[in-house]
Amino acid sequence: MTAIRREIRFLLNDDEIRLTEVGPNDTLLDHIRLARRLTGTKEGCAEGDCGACTVLVGRLTAKGLRYEPVNACIRLLASVDRCHVVTVEHLAGPDGLHPVQQAMVSEHASQCGFCTPGIVMSLYALWLSVPEPGEAEIETALQGNLCRCTGYQPIVDAAKAACALGNPAEDALVTNREAIAAKLKSFDGARVEVEKDGARAFLPADLEDFAELRADMPEATIVAGATDVGLWVTKEMRDISPAVFVGHLAELKEITEDDAGLTLGAAVTYSEAAASVRRMFPHLAEFWPRIGGWQIRNMGTVGGNIANGSPIGDTPPVLIALGARVILRHREERRILELEDFFLDYGKQDRKPGDFLEAIHIPRPAPDTLNAAYKISKRRDEDISAVCGAFSLRLDGGTVGSIRIAFGGMAATPKRASRVEAALEGKPWTEETVAKAANAFAEDFSPISDWRASSDYRALIARNLLLRFLYETSEVGEPVQLSAMPVPEAAGWM
């Protein structure tokens, strides 16, 4: 019989916290500020967009204790069970300011100061993992932090200066690492069941326990990274009870690379998947860092991006173009679907009551295929797609042998451009062929107008992305690929 613990346990800076009354809608930020009066962590947007609420969360992984910057405003409190939460108050020691804080002071990098604690925490995470970062790495680390005073250059200068003011090896999170890990391990891994005011939250003990919980409570909200569910709570005031949290389940975080391709457990985050994705799908090296900001990539999961069925999710069109499949599970039974067949209609997926997404398999591209993925958004970084297009092409000489084209933002679901594909296959891979085939976009898609883009703009973008793909895979025109931005391996530190 599964052991049950009726409290969540975690470390907050130097304190052990045990809470018996926790609701699924409770946020980490509210607990930090209201219950613990640690008011350095700010609420700016309450949707994971501005970074003022950034804290570090350390969790035990197969490779050891890993710390990551996350958005406390949409991180739900129940999810930090068996974690170490670090706020800005933890940085300064008995000898004064932390090196990152001192660098911010020395470089005059704080203006109004509201965003500063969150910026400090992002730079702290970068300093721990890349003590002497380049400018591109700094900019990537700061993707999820907005400075409304527009004072970014001094902040970048502070990130560079911090390495001269202190040694990460002497930081408390490094020197106390073994003791912290031992304490977290001492918190047993039983199933957690907590509630407040009748609202219930569950943390399964393992994957088998989750499969039983899911089948017994098909109405429950599954919470992985909460980058969407968190907004249901903070913006829509939606009651998500009962909620089952799965981001801690090791079995759902497995990553397998083999000759057949890449298999990701449904709770693998974008940051955790990044290195494998870059190795196996080099064309996604630039695309992947444009999914959210650093904090969002540390929380958001590939499985969650698929399971919520959003027509503007970044990963579904990319994975559809690559021929990905999903593994759905109900108790011990599993079924495999082509990813494109999983999406039935707006907000509707081929998922029966009690089903859950267990894993995603992405086939290794054949050596003779040409692949690309493009994201069009108002902001380059940390923004939702207006249109996302992905392509996979195999040429027979100069003729299209086969092609897969998938788009997000063009229909009620992520969807292939099947009529455009049919118009291209067997034809010469030329500008003339592409121009004619692009007319079939009107048969494949009827995009809507919204605040991100008009329907006419989306239709034009789809045609232009196909033309761009032609130019980048042929001698017709000059390549227009953007230069690659180096991405720090600082998805956390080991």
From TrEMBL:
Domain 2Fe-2S ferredoxin-type, residue spans: 6-91
GO MF annotation: an example: xanthine dehydrogenase activity
Entry's EC annotation: 1.17.1.4
Alphabetical list of PROSITE patterns matching this protein: 2FE2S_FER_1 (PS00197), 2FE2S_FER_2 (PS51085), FAD_PCMH (PS51387)
Keywords: FAD, Flavoprotein, Iron, Metal-binding, Oxidoreductase
Pfam families registered for this protein in UniProt: CO_deh_flav_C (PF03450), FAD_binding_5 (PF00941), Fer2 (PF00111), Fer2_2 (PF01799)
InterPro entries linked to this entry: 2Fe-2S-bd, 2Fe-2S-bd_dom_sf, 2Fe-2S_ferredoxin-like_sf, 2Fe-2S_ferredoxin-type, 2Fe2S_fd_BS, Ald_Oxase/xanthine_DH-like, Beta-grasp_dom_sf, CO_DH_flav_C
Domain called FAD-binding PCMH-type: residue spans: 194-367
Gene3D superfamilies per record: 3.10.20.30, 3.30.465.10, [2Fe-2S]-binding domain, CO dehydrogenase flavoprotein, C-terminal domain, Uridine Diphospho-n-acetylenolpyruvylglucosamine Reductase, domain 2
Annotated SUPFAM superfamilies: 2Fe-2S ferredoxin-like (SSF54292), CO dehydrogenase flavoprotein C-terminal domain-like (SSF55447), CO dehydrogenase ISP C-domain like (SSF47741), FAD-binding/transporter-associated domain-like (SSF56176)
Superkingdom, taxonomy of origin: Bacteria
PANTHER family according to UniProt: XANTHINE DEHYDROGENASE
Protein name (database record): Xanthine dehydrogenase small subunit
Source organism (scientific name): Rhodobium gokarnense
